[in-house]
Amino acid sequence: MFKDTLQLTRFRLAELSPDDYARHIEQALSEQDIELARSLLTLADEQGVVLAAQWQEQVAAQETWAATAMRNSSDIWQGISTGRAHSGAGLAAATLSDFTLFGDVRDVIQQSIAWPEHDPILLALAGTGLGLSAITLASGGTAAPVKVGLSLVKVARKSGRLSKNLGRQLTHITKNAIDPNVVSEVGTRFSKLELNTLNRVQLDELASTAKRIVSPTASKQLLKSGRGVRRIAKNTSSKGALDALQHADSIQELSRLARLSDGLKGSFRASLRLLPDVGKSLYKLTSTLISLLLWLGGAVIWLGTAAWYGLRILVWLIMGLWRLF
């Protein structure tokens, strides 16, 4: 099924004109999303689409160190202090703040203060992430990949880049899965810790407590989404993962996009911009129909060939019998 979806995506991309690419590159540049503009140039090259030299020149001019530093400076601080980010550097800062426990603790405290007007998604992600952060620090990084994925989901939620339908699904999963008593316990336990003297025992205790904030069933779904997001980020970039979170309407759809990113790699963001319905359920149905049509076409050819040879054998037998008489 993955190969069918990838082939269908490439088939549709082949129908696009140079003007389609140019329009979206211009839009990406106006949005200061240089990474997306580069992804569009990469995809155009892969598809054999010839673009005007001006687009390569404009993108290259925005990829210099000075231009990049100017764009990212304010976003880095925003990523560390609030967990919201838009640039790659801001995303890295937001993720790093979660790995130091600061980001998740900040969000657990903020959401517990806001209770019962809290955001269940943020609280559940922070609780699950806090447990993973402690495990990561104590184990030397074994839980880091999933932790990265959860942090990116949290950034998407805070930055308004989580699709409405996916947000509804995650809200449904988490709203009745949080134990307020455990939230309070985590806050109390953390307030007694001295970060400069943290040891393995304390981290294990913190992780054990944090894992109880969210029910095992809800935590399992959050971890599944985190793995999918991390897979997309690994294949493309953190911004590619945010694009997927903005487009996916469900955790299942997010998983389909993760599989698609395995094949598209650096051109994933461009493909998602040019074909916004990639990964939707309709794609799965269309892929199935195409597979069915190809199978039926093969069957018709086989039957036609068999009928032709059958007819020749029948004629040969009739001619043989005619000679005998």
The secondary-structure class comes to mainly alpha
Inertia-based shape: globular
Number of helices: 17
Mean pLDDT: 79
How many whole angstroms does the radius of gyration measure?
27 Å
Strand % is under 5%
User: What is the percent of helical residues?
Assistant: over 70%
The sequence of SSEs as H and E is HHHHHHHHHHHHHHHHH
Number of strands: 0
Distance between the termini: 58 Å
The parts where pLDDT drops under 50 for at least 5 residues are none
Main beta sheet: none
Describe this structure in words.
The protein is mostly helical and 325 residues long. It is built from 17 helices and no strands. The chain has helices at 2-13, 18-30, 34-46, 53-62, 65-82, 88-99, 102-114, 120-139, 144-158, 164-174, 180-191, 200-210, 216-235, 238-247, 251-264, 268-274, 281-324. The longest helix is centred in the C-terminal third of the chain and has 44 residues, at 281-324. The radius of gyration is 27 Å and the shape is globular.
List keywords for this structure.
globular, mainly alpha, 325 residues
Give the topology, please.
Blueprint: H1 2-13, H2 18-30, H3 34-46, H4 53-62, H5 65-82, H6 88-99, H7 102-114, H8 120-139, H9 144-158, H10 164-174, H11 180-191, H12 200-210, H13 216-235, H14 238-247, H15 251-264, H16 268-274, H17 281-324
Helix pairs in contact: 2-3, 3-4, 3-16, 5-6, 6-7, 6-9, 7-8, 7-11, 8-9, 8-12, 9-13, 9-14, 13-14, 13-15
